[in-house]
Amino acid sequence: MARNLLDLQDMMHRIDGEWARWSPDDISLIAMPIGHIGGTGWAFWTLFHGAKGIVVRDFDPNRVLDFIEHDKVNKLFIVPSALQIVVSQPRARRIDYSHLKYISYGASPIPLALLRECVEVFGCGFVQMYGMTETTGTVVALPPEDHSLEGNKRMRSAGKPLPGVDLAILDASGRHLPPEEVGEIAIRSPSNMRGYWNLPEATAKAIDKDGWLRTGDAGYLDADGYLYIHDRVKDMIISGGENVYPAEVENAIHGHPDVFDVAVIGVPSEKWGEEVKAIVQPKPGSRPDPQDVIRWARERVAAFKAPKSVEFIDAFPRTATGKILRRELREKYWHGRDRKVN
Question: How far is CA 158 from CA 130, 189, 211, 246, 293, in A?
């Protein structure tokens, strides 16, 4: 593990960008759980460079704003769901962020509407980071220069691989796919794990003989080498023989003026096998019309990807890092069935 972390630091040092530079004068906010690579990796980077690190015991959006305002935090890592809660606080628009240099975010896809709002409110540099525990954290990054208030295609990507990292898109048989074709993202990196502890079969399934680690994420590479992530392979919905990735539909719905958060799942359908359903958490004081949410989505994604139904929820079940537990949302619709796909 120590060797992996040091290898990752070596890759970061080779990046030609101010966002990757650290100094003992930096003040870092460690707002994610230390039991997750997002928290562990960020804390290690802080410690490695001799910077001051402020560890948040429990996530509280107002405490995060307190640390930024009063402790002059200039760097932090946060997941999109937590970032959304922070930026939605009324006082978020009254704080002086002139000392805040960079907000790094990752661990799950971020809706473009949310990202643009955060760029506008915080006014600092934004860096998207993509990685996983098996890669010891970040191996792909989207730098600040690829973010803009106007929005651009690259803001939908996770960025480009760090120096020394190889990316590939594989089909089910392990064949490398060309640019723009969706498949499973595979990574070959000095910071990749050697294997799962005492699980040789799981290790062999995850890492092939050439050192490619299958991530379980679906995505594609463009002609310039930018990585675009669709979703987890296991969360993909197959409706009428068409593949639907929940994150794409969620991104479309998220911009609706009455929607605070949304999760898209597949539910049983006699006609389509599975059909798309949106679970929506409304903004406080709002009561969206389900048909209006569906119309909004159909204007932004292909008709077969748009939800057939909408349900409302007060709050989502989440992991410790803020990811929505789609499995729990799906359970009541698939209960009693032998298979969780149709």
Answer: 6, 17, 22, 17, 27
Buried b (16+ CB within 10 A) or exposed e, 230-242: bbbbebbbebeee
Residue 5 burial by Cβ neighbours in a 10 Å radius (0-12, 13-18, 19+): middle
- Return contacts of 93-96, CB within 8 angstroms, 24+ apart: 93/121, 95/65, 95/68, 95/69, 96/69
Alpha-carbon 226 to chain mean position = 15
Rounded mean pLDDT of 157-164?
94
Instruction: Report the distance separating Cα 271 and Cα 199, nearest Å.
Output: 41
Does the structure show a pLDDT above 70 at 342? no
Residue 128's DSSP bridge partners are: 105, 142
Domains belonging to the chain, first-starting first, are 2-161 (3.40.50.980), 166-232 (2.30.38.10), 236-334 (3.30.300.30)
Higher pLDDT pick, 310 / 172: 310
Mean pLDDT to the nearest integer, 88-95: 94
Residue 128 has a pLDDT of 93
Is residue 178 classed exposed, middle or buried when 0-12, 13-18 and 19+ CB atoms within 10 A define those classes?
A: exposed
pLDDT value of residue 33: 85
Q: Is the dihedral of CA 118, 121, 122, 124 positive or negative?
A: positive
Taking 70 as the threshold, does the pLDDT of residue 340 lie above it?
A: no
Cα(119)–Cα(110) distance, integer angstroms: 13
More confident residue, 54 or 7: 54
What DSSP assignment string belongs to 204-215?
A: HHHB-TT-PEEE
pLDDT score recorded for residue 183: 94
pLDDT at residue 337 in the model: 65
Residues 6+ apart with CB under 8 A from 79: 32, 38, 105, 106, 107, 108, 321, 322, 323
